[in-house]
Amino acid sequence: MNRLLSTRNLLGIRELNREDLDLIFETADNFKNLLNSKIRKVPTLRDITIANIFFENSTRTRVSFELAEKRLSADVVNFSSSGSSVSKGETLIDTVRNILSMKVDMVVMRHPVPGACVFLAKHIDVPVVNAGDGTREHPTQALLDAFSIREKLGTVSGKKVVIIGDILHSRVALSNIFCLQKLGAEVMVCGPATLLPRHIESLGVKVETDVRKALEWADVANVLRIQLERQDIRYFPSLREYTLNFGINKTILDSLNNNPVIMHPGPINRGVELSSDVADGTHSIILDQVENGVAIRMAVIFLLSQKINNN
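-> structure tokens emitted (311 positions)
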């Protein structure tokens, strides 16, 4: 009997258990082998239609989902809020219900409001995949990040992972914390005190404001960009000062007693949080993350499609 996910939707990492994570990674292993072969495409979901509904700008995530869906032979419908009836005042529920009336079997949604995907899943009867909702969660990014660490270091359990940057506004940070802890990693967050959420320690993470100490501690550094578009006040004097205090360059890495793996979910602000020689250097697995994103999203979509077939 096929193993199934414990949940019908992927709304956040918090809803997944350890067995779910292992199943997603094992499935992604198989799909990555496929992507690296001459076949690259399978007819697995040729009777499934998936709607990608993006109320927020995206390049990497949207392309990654679309490619994953097409590699599985699903029919794909892309929807963006710009130029749509949403801009005329149509509600989220009405928009999605109109799309579902066209016989869509699954929805992948990105939305700027935290919890929008959870709200949607309560009102429609097809699986929903959260492609990022506000500052709440971005589960597939956390999955591909953990998958990339597992691929590089052999395991996630017992590894020390520091998340550096704008923790306060990042849905990636929150999902990564939940995912890494479920897999047995130690997690630290590092950044300016103004960009660290109050009571972040309650999530069981270490907190550091000295980037050099954080890097010395870590096996892996997942570096986040400063999300200026989500900041309504000034959290630090200037980008130049941020770079001086928290930017990572080759000089810093060469001075360390260890060799932490460098990750970044993108897009990279080169010269701000990472210098180009670090982003493109031997420590970096950033392009591996991009490649692994397709395999992870194929795995998630495939596993959720089994829930459709079982209903």
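The two ends are 16 Å apart (CA to CA).
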